[in-house]
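Review form for a predicted model. The reviewer records the input and the model, then writes brief findings.
Reviewer: anonymous (R2)
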Amino acid sequence: MRKIFDPQMTFGQTPIDQIKIDMRARDEIPKLLLGLKHIFCDQDLREKVFTILKNMIPEDTDSKNGRPGMDLWKILVMGTIRLNCNWDYDKLQEMVNNHKTLRQMLGHGMMDDDGTYPLQTLKDNVRLMTPDILDKINTLVVQEGHNLLMQKKTSEGETLMGRCDSFVVETDVHFPTDINLLFDAIRKMIQIAAIISQDIGTSMWRQSEYNIKVFKRLYRIVQLLKHSTSKDEKKKARKALQIMDAHKVYIELAEKFIQKANLTIEMLESSDIMNAARAEVLQTYINYALWQIDLIKRRVLQDEKIPHKDKIFSIFESHTEWISKGKAGVPQELGLRVCILEDQYGFILHHQVMEKETDDKVAMAMVTSAQNKFSDLKGCSFDKGFYTPGNKKDLKETLNIVVLPKKGRCNKAEHEEETTEDFIRLKRKHSAVESAINGLENHGLDRCPDHGIKGFKRYVSLSVLARNLQIIGHHIQQKGLKQLQRFERRKAA
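Model under review:
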């Protein structure tokens, strides 16, 4: 049994529309809470948001039976505040259990001090949000933001202009090498095989912890040998032989553990559902280990240069990509590209997680998706990374204004186009999208701690929604602050 929001007030509870938020505060929490308060207090908008949140509840669920679950409004508040403030779940737990104003936004009163949230409850519930649901809510939030900031739009004929750019969101992984990825695979393989072995009553893996230590010791030996910086030719030749021998010993022990893990899988009964699921995960790590062994043999023993397409950068976050954007001081980043389209008011109209894609592949998709949500989008600016002749042609058919600088030398017509006053003015304004990217990175979107590609996409969607809510809250706060200052001046006079 799960509700969207419990309308029944409890003793000491403050209605959300009466929550007092400091208009002078410079922290990000009051800004986000003001944005959430505005969404809740607008009845039409609240009903639309609640209708979308209903999709989080499975259709076959009986809303009147079963154990009560966390209200969906609380999940939305917790998810956005976590991303907006760049908190982990431990910090989120501390704040939702002790922050007075935040607890009022969650629907707690002064007599409800015992209503606290365990850590695992927060993790399980925030993960119920999906990118699709968050994207729909974000569209409503941006539309409301436009209603607040574009009051003169109709009379002045103002159109919506976009700025599109991409950046890298890092995944929570260590720097990958074939030897440390092999260690990760063997370590997880031994741990899962030990659980299975204990469950079926065999002692095959009774020394599992010792086995991991022995394998780690060999890993450290290989790692230290690779760090040699000697320039003496004889020492270098001797060191090369030592490195090769150490890799052979390292690989041989890994292969023995793999054979033992395969025997463990063969001992399982087909009727044991739990161990069958564990065996599937175990087989995944076995496959990762075999792949890394093959790469090590090719690189060290056969002196082969490994193609980029054959490399794996994380066995835990398999969607991780090695990205080199050529930025000063940043030779490479491990994560995924995220493309955003921002309007002139600072709202992010649309975003896309780019899996094995580059900027020039998503230009049209970004504009088309944004126009499906905001039909008044008439122009957009890009940087050179988005340029292809096909993109420029398609974008001009879709938009009234296109700012897309060409890569390389321009012909006469292209030079005249790119030196016009409007093109130069809009090209200079394009750099403002870096402010939005910096804002997202500063509020949690520099590195994603959530697991899996689904967790990555949910994390990005929550960050975009939180950013747009914060922008609404900021404008409401500035308006309220001006009113407060006028009141204080009249009172002083």
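Findings: The radius of gyration is 28 Å.
Further findings: The beta strands are 160-171, 321-323, 333-343, 348-354, 377-381, 401-403, 447-448.
Recommendation: see findings above.
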